[in-house]
Amino acid sequence: MPWNEPGKDKDPWGQRNDNGPPDLDEVLNNFKKKLNGVLGGKGGSGGIPGRGGSGDMSGLLLIALIAITVVWLLSGIYIVDEGKRGVETRFGARTVVTMPGPHWRLPWPIDNVEQVDVEGIRTTNHNSQMLTEDENIVALSLAVQYNIKEASAYVFEVREPDVTLRQAAETAIREVVGANTMDFIITEGRAVIATETKRIMQEILDSYNTGLNVLQVNLNEAQPPEEVQDAFADAIKAREDEQRIINEANAYRNDIVPKARGDAQSMLEDAEAYRTRVLKSSQGETERFNQLLTEYRRAPEVTRQRLYIETIEEIMANNPKVMIDVDNGNNLTYLPLDKMMSQPGASSRNPASMHSGSSSVDTGRAQDVLDSFRRDAARSRLRETR
Fold this sequence. Notes:
The protein is of the alpha+beta class. Helix content is 52%, strand content 16%. The chain has ten helices and eight strands. The longest helix is centred in the last third of the chain and has 70 residues, at 229-298. The model is unreliable at 12-18, 42-52 and 347-362 (pLDDT under 50).
């Protein structure tokens, strides 16, 4: 007979269960009754679940329903990876944007979440031929680097944001190329073209609210079409030669012009110094003559004698001739020939001349100076009388 048969008051070990724990059948029956009371069912025959009866089936369904509900609720837990944003939607409508970390949402099909990478850098390339301002055709190769700055706008505002970005790049580069000449685009204008294209692209994307951010625009290639590349290469080489010659001419000019200006300034300064020297010398001679004239008017004879003596001293100082007085009976005379030869003009003149009884002084020059002075004095007196 089973140990748990109703009506028995002993357990398998021969002990009464008055003070012991209730048996398993009793626990299950109580739990089944409670479930039936909740569901409104009627209890059947006693026994463990699985032995038949509608009450047992209802209990199992409830347990399964509870388990499924718990699993369904737990399926709403999700984790947003680092560098991404979670965009939650409820029945397709946006609700909230979540940051990296664990989150919970109402499980499917009520809520849904889409993770968007906002830190990853994306790249797209664009190749095309465009018409420049001077009506030339240029082939361009453009590389655009971008990322997502607003996840919600990226998901909801535009159907295909990446396609929209490529179309915006096409529009921007055509606008920039159409406003510049071909020479500028293929030579020194690459950086300007890339910067201006980036600016226009960002304005277009912001106006569409795409949630995209343009990081960098690189102009990889800008050249004429393949059919005319040889002609353009020759033109570019000629332009480079022209620029080289211009640079060499500028370098020569920068070397010559400062030297010429320096020489001109030196000549001007020398001329100014010569003018100042001559002017001061003339002013000094004039002042000396006026002072001498004043002295001459005060004492004509004394001044005349002084002028005569000074003139003789000046002439004799530069004359290598030697005067000897032989009347005093001096028969022995010492001639310093070494000093006489070192005087100016000694090599072209006789270093020593001996004259007896008279001096061999060149008085013609002194007389000329004295006569000139007399004439100047006479002219001065004549101007005063007038």
